[in-house]
What does this fold into?
Amino acid sequence: MNKSKKDITLIVAPNIGLIDNLLPILYEINNLYELNLNVIFLNKKITLSLKKNTFLEILDSINCNYFITFNEKDFFYIDEFKNIENVISRYYKLIFLFNMIKIFKKIFKLNIFNNFNNVLIKLINKNNPISKKFIYEEFKKTEFIFFDIGEQDVCLNIFPFLKKINCKYVSINNGIAMHHLSLNKMIVNNTKEQSPFKNIVHYIFNDKEINYYKKKFNLKENQIKKINIPRHNKKWINFFKNYYINDIPKSFNNYVIIGSKPGTNIAFSKKNKIICIKILKKILIDELNLNIVIKKHPKELNDVLYEKIFGKSNYNKNWTVTNNHIFNLGNKAKFCISFGGSLPIDLINLDVLSIEFRDLNGILEYDNENSLRDNNDNPISYLGFTNIVETASKEHELREKIEYIIKNKEFAIKSKKNLYLKCYLNPVTDNSDIAKEILTL
It folds into this structure.
């Protein structure tokens, strides 16, 4: 029996976390239909974060056309590829060329390099049929555009014609930690962005997001639908076992997962990151003699802080870095220390407890009269406020929380799972049912 065709475009921004959330749905659509999927990576930061990993490998198994955009002053470049590796290769070449030009211009300050820049742009674009007009024609064929409404300004800045496309717009959050609710009162009270997409439905994971999206983007109640987190469906989690990467030493049993972050934003600066890593070394390695498995954020793959603090000579002895998806790390994990983000939400479904460890004190955006706070009056994230994840801002608090979850593991897991169900829907709905619902919008 021939499958009917479905043309879908996925705009990836602000980062590849959006793929992690949407991939279970796209995978089911691919099973149900003959899917033609255009995947557009919008900016340099996203493409630089692309490394071979599990969910990108699964995405490659779908019939995809990948498009990258490269934005520099007076230069806009789009290209098309059939697999992720080619996308990464081309992007790094472009970045190398433009960085060399910038260096020469700074050193010599000669106009000749401006002329060379123009020649280079013409050479790069020569024989390249991809243009904004080409993309516009591709968009006109699509039935659904998947994206994150929080990135609508970025999308429209690059592709202004987006709001003119006669299709259905499906929006879903880039993350599941609901970071926007950590700053909810400040944002909702000061901004209101009219969404230009009339035929749009935004999918949320938590009821408390309804008010945020109604006020910030002026969405109507019938444009906001709640679903369970697709990637938490047990069938999907088990599917990842087929993609286990053998990069963790066999001697590492009962290890501690570090859910790392780049240390490049106000919520977690590089200074804060260094302090936290030094404390982790002191407690986990020096005192408790535990092995550590670090799950790096895509944007920090070249960060050498762990080598400097944990010791390069100790790599694969008492600490290591993994490329495995978090779903393949739960079986042998003792607990997790997170620097922020959604890993703790993924892990509680695998019976792994987490502590969010970072200090938000003194950061105005988080430490103000409207801040969410723990029992010690420390400002915390919304995820910490739900108590699904334990929180610690100082060394002594971290010690207390580690002791608590080790001594009370079974009770704590049961408690955290109940809290999960108060915050999110039980992930029992089959992802194929979610896919079918979306396609009937």
The domain at 248-423 is CATH 3.40.50.2000 (Rossmann fold). The first strand starts at residue 5 and ends at 12. The CA atoms of residues 262 and 300 lie 5 Å apart. The longest helix spans residues 84-108.
